[in-house]
Amino acid sequence: MSLFLALIIVAIVLGIIGAVADGLLFLLFIGIVLLVADLIYIAMRVRRSAHRRPVR
Question: Which of 36, 37, 44, 51 is the most exposed place for a label (fewest CB within 10 A)?
């Protein structure tokens, strides 16, 4: 969970720097890609953990 939160913070920081700084638009795109990859990672982790729970 700490990896997920750290990647979210890095994605937000890169997005803000890329949006504000002139000529660093590529950082905004890197932040967006990192955010999407992080959301896919957490979705796969939640789906995998839901599979392991026994049905009662």
Answer: 51
pTM of the shown model: 0.73
Give the chain's domain count. 1
The 10s digit of each residue's pLDDT in 26-37 is 888 888 899 899
Domain span at residue 22 reads: 2-52
What is the DSSP track for 26-43? Answer: HHHHHHHHHHHHHHHHHH
Residue 14 burial by Cβ neighbours in a 10 Å radius (0-12, 13-18, 19+): buried
Q: Which of 33, 11, 15, 34 is nearest to 25 (CA)?
A: 15
